[in-house]
Specification:
mainly alpha, 14 helices, disordered C terminus
């Protein structure tokens, strides 16, 4: 994940960067689109373990294709690996994302969660101090001196916090509240990533012509509107209406992602493209974990967790349905507000037409 954007940016000239990242979004979108229906079929007929078994031959084919197809290039002058920074980053982000992922299940005051948060609270500030002093830091802090890079990084993080909860909640909505089988629920989830795959090449190409600022901000605003609209669905909403809602969110994501990724990668100098791509990949994973934590906390606070258990047990009474919807709507409202914040951070980044700063 970290190497792919850096390779793309290196392979295309600056004026085609947005288009290249947009085409990359097509491949990602098609893969994500196949996931829900294929996963539903596999789970329904073979069992959940086969979700992981099928990845073994795909992984082997990926390794072979990478070795045979990708060009071999000489590495630039190598810098020593910052092992201290790597350990601090792995410990800090591992503890943070692990704790957030299991917070709702284990309890936010449980001993494992307290330990995880304590580790993150110590190692992440220590990482900041370390990279400022290290001669060859894992992540060069001077990258964030670029207003475009800092803004694009913040927008990336907020954007994934805002959008990933949709992928978490909608399967529960379709299967537990509406009683659909996994295969049909997967098919109803396909339009969102397919929309991203369809629209992203166009927004990437447009970003090459007019810049990334307004496109990225507009995309997150569209996502915010789509999330706000999604808070109005209930147990009687037509599936056409729900899918139309997902299409709006997909258009927003496709309008945001290629321009914002292009801005982030373009703001880093050529010799720091790998670091910038690593920031992009880490921001995605941390944003997804924070999205699960935020949505899960709001869902549970408004009674959604107990309602979901009741629905799973066959209790389709009015109180259980109402509590489930109340928790889901609260979570989506919180995500919509985060999407608005991402739109603002994208809007204030300024022009991204100037050359990337040379940090060395």
């Amino acid at each position: 994940m970290a190497v792919s954007p850096a390779m793309l940016v290196a392979a295309f000239p600056r004026e085609q960067r947005g288009r290249a990242l947009g085409m990359n979004a097509v491949i990602v979108g098609l893969g994500v689109s196949l996931g829900p229906p294929l996963g539903g079929v596999i789970t329904g007929h073979l069992g959940w373990r086969w979700i992981f078994y099928v990845n073994i031959p795909l992984g082997v084919l990926g390794v072979i294709a990478s070795l045979r197809i990708l060009p071999r290039e000489k590495s630039p002058a190598r810098e020593p690996i910052d092992w201290i920074g790597a350990v601090l980053l792995a410990a800090g982000l591992g503890a943070l994302t692990g704790g957030l992922s299991f917070g709702a299940e284990l309890g936010w005051t449980s001993a494992p969660l307290v330990v995880c948060m304590a580790i993150a609270a110590v190692t992440l500030p220590a990482l900041v101090v370390h990279v400022r002093r290290a001669r060859y830091p894992l992540v060069d802090p001077r990258l964030w001196q670029s207003r475009v890079f800092a803004s694009a990084s913040a927008s990336l993080l907020l954007g994934f916090i805002a959008t990933f909860a949709v992928a978490v909640f909608m399967p529960f909505y379709f299967e537990q509240l509406r009683g659909l089988p996994a295969e049909r629920a997967g098919l109803l989830l396909m339009p969102l990533p397919l929309t991203v795959a369809t629209v992203a090449p166009f927004t990437g190409a447009i970003a090459d012509r007019i810049g990334t600022q307004k496109l990225a901000a507009s995309g997150m605003f569209i996502v915010a509107c789509g999330l706000a609209w999604l808070t109005t669905i209930d147990e009687h909403s037509s599936f056409v209406r729900v899918v139309a809602n997902l299409l709006v969110i997909g258009v927003g994501q496709a309008t945001f992602q290629p321009p914002n990724n292009s801005a982030l990668m373009g703001a880093a100098p050529r010799e720091r493209q790998g670091v910038a791509a690593g920031v992009l990949a880490s921001g995605r994973v941390v944003g997804q974990s924070l999205s699960v934590a935020l949505a899960g906390a709001l869902f549970g606070f408004f009674g959604g967790t107990e309602a979901a258990r009741a629905l799973r047990g066959g209790d389709l009474s009015g109180p259980a349905v109402a509590a489930f919807l109340r928790g889901m709507h609260a979570s989506l409202t919180g995500c919509a507000l985060v999407a608005l914040a991402a739109s603002v951070t994208a809007l204030v980044r300024g022009s991204d037409r100037s050359p990337a700063p040379q940090v060395r």
